[in-house]
Amino acid sequence: MAEPIIATAGLNMSFGDVQALQDVDLQVPAGRIGLVGANGAGKSTLIKILLGMLRPTGGATEVYGTSAQHHPLAVRSRVGYMPEGDCFPPDQTAADFVSYTAELGGLPASESRQRASEVLTLVGLAEERFRNFGEFSTGMKQRAKLAQAIVHSPELVLLDEPASGLDPDGREDMLNLINRLGDFGMSVVFSSHVLGDIERTCDWVVMLNEGRLLRNEPLAAIRASNAVQVVLLDEPGPAVEALRSRGARVSVSNRTLDVELETGDPFLVIRDVLAETGVGLRSMGSKETTLEDVYLAEEEYTQ
Q: For the chain, how many structural domains are there in total?
């Protein structure tokens, strides 16, 4: 792995009796990182620790080699943050607010308004930038939150449920914007419980469940599968028995089998079994694994 942009060691966070994060060890490279898990998995807590907004009860956290606990302002100078909740003053315009956040990010006052105008145009709010936030729809507010997160050209952007509350068209636009951030040299941590959104936008996945780290690896590796999906024409019982006798793991749904082998070529084994048992074949091919498949399997394994 290249030099990590985020690293944690033995990270723990508790709120009273609630353990929000438990012994999380991470090393995450630059790129588009999906932070996935059900509501309550610890995603927002981890983001706030990375920003130095929360001090963990144990362990260490670094962003670009800088301790988030000991030097939070140094971390925030290199990071943009899009919070999940509504955070705008209703009587302020988008242009004024984003210009203000540009100055907070270190841009001179003379440049901040021009930069705010450019970024608001980028996110699709060119005509609405002089309207008050009190007149904004949910989708417009989400776009404005993204604008304030990137207006100072951070190296890393932390997005907490950026597509939350959006209609299908708004969600599509937000995902397209997230994909474009890499074109501007920004890494992205995209927190979401909607696994399909992560599959569309990210190349690395950090998977949490009840505060525990389940996976931390490239999306391609998570989705890789040596399973073969077989659709049969006949009653599958004889084929299933014969496959299992050869050491295959077989899951059955009606006449569809998912077959995995630790060693050997599963296609050849399936061919031989079907020839021996006389069971008819409709189709056979590599099984595609989704993030949802992996998450549910990991969740079941850890219970």
A: 2
